[in-house]
């Protein structure tokens, strides 16, 4: 501990003295002498407050906060990060403090606060000059958005980091961000793009002669090939990953790589090779003292031995696995153990024991399924609640702006009235009375119209919420229950492969329905931030044509006026487009869609949608989709007409241009 000193008392420190003290405190912090470092930082803040610039004070508070963060004193850390922000709210120190605040909120599992802090940090960095810290923050933000499931936002910031590191010629950072982009694109299902970035990451690591990370890059690329069932390419890259590490004195994660290679051998029915490679993996994992992976390896060794009909070895491996499992609580490993035990006893004609292990596997699988189902429901609920919060905040902000505008107008009006009263006296009072009378009537008229409009919107929103609630209930209760019953039927089914296919199709259908609900809640989302509405529409039509196998013939170019409309109008128009495409896909059985447009008298924008489907039944014109189209068209101030044609269905949308412009 440093004893209190009167060295700086009652004096204002000169700049050179402040600089020396800060260097001393930084040095102490780097050497992990945190108590002394904090003491000196506080001394500078206390005795040099009049001399310190806001930027210097912000820096010192940030440094103190980082020390508390390293010591896991998160409460004190948050206090000092916030002080850093208050001292200079648009500086790099503030941006870093916001980001670190986000990391603390992440540890405390406060998602709303995490993204609030993260967005504040990114918004400050956008206005700062390009730097390594700026692009590193973009990269870290991309990883955080990826981990939270916000993949499109993650890609946005990862690409900014990629461009920044490219300009700065920082190949090491660029290789890392290439890997993250590849993994994110893989999660989005864009496997071609994912492969491109993973290969680029691998090539950069080779150029840098970074042996360890080159090995990781080969392994990452092999994982992608494995997920595509391109086992030949997966084997080549897993072997390269292992071979690359052979030249290192200290190997890392070589056991996992060997395990990955053994799994591919097993999947391609090369049981002897799989058995040999699993043994090598086991040897490495024992050196790494990775208990969980060792248990996994013994399980897979046992299965390979069963397939090779080496039953004594299989029994030995299962016994070894059980020894390690006694210290492991991870249910997935136990699930695999029960499954392989059941197969072993079945192959040895011990059907009763096999059935007992199968029953244990079923019970554990049910527990895991229930846990995952609960997490899925919770995630859906959180997402829905977050959307409602954002909508509520937006509405409050709009009302607040309206009130501010009214107050400003009223203040100006009062000034004018006072001036007129002084000049014209009683005559002006008469005019003021007339003015107020007319204004009041106009306000009452506008208020009635606004109230009526709000009532219709609220009724529609309530109806949409009820439908969404029903849809979520049906997805969670009916669909998942159906999947659960099919899973239960697998054991006794004569055609398990067909049932598995139906389960996969059911899950795909659920994903599609959840995505539709998400689009209804927020059609545009964050897409409009990075592209024009016309670009978003073209991208959506291309995706629709590619994935739904329905040819789209659209009249190009799209009207430029769409890009000029206010955000609310753009959101409503894009929402209409999504609902039309969904109805075509879901009900029409069409193979082609035509989209035409024109501007009438420079006042009205008309869009016509035609499909060559089967038309519609009376009940289909009353669904939530068409109701959504009708309501959004109404908000645009336009009309919506749907009719059956000889060759399918046509939908006409028209709305005035002027009232939807800024």
UniProtKB/TrEMBL annotation:
Its main location: cytoplasm. Keywords: Coiled coil, Cytoplasm, Membrane, Repeat, TPR repeat, Transmembrane, Transmembrane helix. The keyword Disulfide bond does not apply. It is found in: Cytoplasm. It holds the Pfam family TPR_8. It comes from the Bacteria. The keyword Transcription regulation does not apply. The chain crosses the membrane at residues 419-438. GO terms for cellular component: cytoplasm. Residues 568-659 form the Histidine kinase/HSP90-like ATPase domain. TPR repeats lie at residues 215-248, 255-288. Residues 439-466 form a coiled coil. Belongs to the Rap family. PANTHER family: TETRATRICOPEPTIDE REPEAT PROTEIN 29. This is Histidine kinase/HSP90-like ATPase domain-containing protein. It comes from Polaribacter porphyrae.
């Amino acid at each position: 501990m440093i004893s209190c000193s009167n060295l700086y008392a009652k004096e204002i420190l000169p700049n050179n003295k402040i600089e020396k003290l800060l260097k001393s405190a930084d040095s102490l912090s780097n050497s992990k002498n945190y108590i002394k470092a904090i003491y000196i930082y506080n001394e500078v803040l206390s005795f040099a407050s009049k001399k310190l610039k806001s930027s210097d004070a912000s820096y010192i508070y940030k440094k103190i906060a980082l020390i508390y963060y390293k010591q896991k004193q998160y409460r004190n850390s948050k206090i000092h990060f916030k002080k850093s922000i208050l001292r200079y709210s648009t500086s790099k120190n503030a941006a870093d403090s916001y980001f670190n605040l986000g990391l603390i909120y992440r540890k405390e599992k406060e998602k709303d606060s995490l993204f609030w802090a993260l967005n504040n940090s990114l918004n400050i960095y956008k206005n700062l000059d390009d730097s390594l810290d700026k692009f590193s923050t973009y990269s870290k933000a991309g990883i955080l958005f990826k981990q939270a499931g916000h993949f499109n936002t993650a890609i946005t910031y990862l690409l900014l980091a990629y461009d920044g590191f490219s300009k700065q010629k920082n190949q090491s950072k660029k290789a890392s961000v290439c890997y993250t982009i590849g993994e994110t694109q893989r999660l989005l299902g864009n496997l071609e793009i994912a492969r491109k970035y993973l290969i680029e990451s691998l090539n950069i690591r080779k150029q840098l002669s970074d042996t360890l990370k080159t090995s990781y890059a080969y392994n990452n690329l092999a994982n992608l090939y494995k997920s595509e069932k391109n086992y030949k390419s997966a084997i080549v890259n897993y072997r390269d990953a292992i071979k690359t590490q052979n030249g290192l004195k200290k190997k890392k994660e070589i056991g996992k790589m060997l395990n990955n290679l053994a799994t591919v051998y097993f999947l391609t029915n090369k049981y002897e090779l799989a058995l040999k490679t699993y043994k090598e993996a086991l040897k490495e994992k024992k050196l790494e003292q990775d208990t969980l992976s060792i248990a996994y390896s013994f399980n897979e060794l046992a299965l390979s031995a069963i397939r090779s009909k080496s039953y004594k070895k299989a029994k030995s491996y299962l016994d070894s696995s059980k020894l390690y499992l006694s210290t492991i609580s991870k249910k997935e490993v136990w699930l695999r153990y029960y499954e392989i035990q059941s197969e072993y006893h079945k192959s040895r004609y011990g059907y009763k024991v096999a059935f007992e292990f199968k029953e244990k596997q079923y019970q554990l699988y049910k527990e895991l399924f229930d846990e995952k189902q609960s997490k899925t429901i919770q995630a859906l609920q959180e997402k829905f609640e977050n959307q409602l919060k954002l909508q509520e905040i937006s509405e409050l902000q709009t009302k607040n702006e309206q009130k501010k505008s009214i107050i400003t107008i009223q203040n100006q009006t009062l000034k004018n009235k006072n001036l007129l009263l002084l000049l014209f006296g009683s005559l002006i009072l008469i005019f003021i009375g007339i003015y107020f009378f007319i204004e009041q009537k106009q306000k009452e008229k506008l208020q009635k119209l606004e109230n009526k409009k709000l009532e219709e919107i609220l009724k529609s929103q309530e109806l949409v919420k009820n439908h969404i609630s029903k849809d979520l209930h049906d997805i969670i209760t009916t669909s998942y229950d159906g999947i659960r019953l099919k899973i239960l039927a697998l054991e006794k089914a004569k055609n398990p492969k067909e049932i598995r296919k139906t389960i996969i199709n059911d899950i795909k259908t659920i994903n599609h329905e959840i995505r539709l609900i998400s689009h209804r809640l927020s059609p545009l989302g964050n897409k409009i931030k990075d592209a024009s509405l016309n670009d978003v529409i073209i991208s959506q039509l291309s995706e629709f044509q590619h994935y739904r196998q329905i040819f789209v013939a659209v009249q190009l170019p799209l009207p430029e006026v769409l890009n000029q409309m206010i955000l609310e109008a753009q959101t409503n128009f894009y929402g209409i487009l999504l609902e039309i495409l969904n109805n075509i896909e879901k009900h029409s059985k069409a193979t082609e869609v035509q989209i035409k447009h024109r501007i009438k008298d420079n006042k009205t924008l008309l869009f016509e949608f035609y499909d060559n489907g089967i038309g519609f039944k009376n009940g289909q014109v009353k669904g939530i989709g068409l109701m959504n189209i009708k309501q959004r068209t109404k908000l645009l101030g336009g009309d919506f007409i749907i009719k059956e044609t000889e060759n399918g269905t046509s939908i006409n949308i028209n709305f005035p241009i002027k009232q939807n412009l800024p």
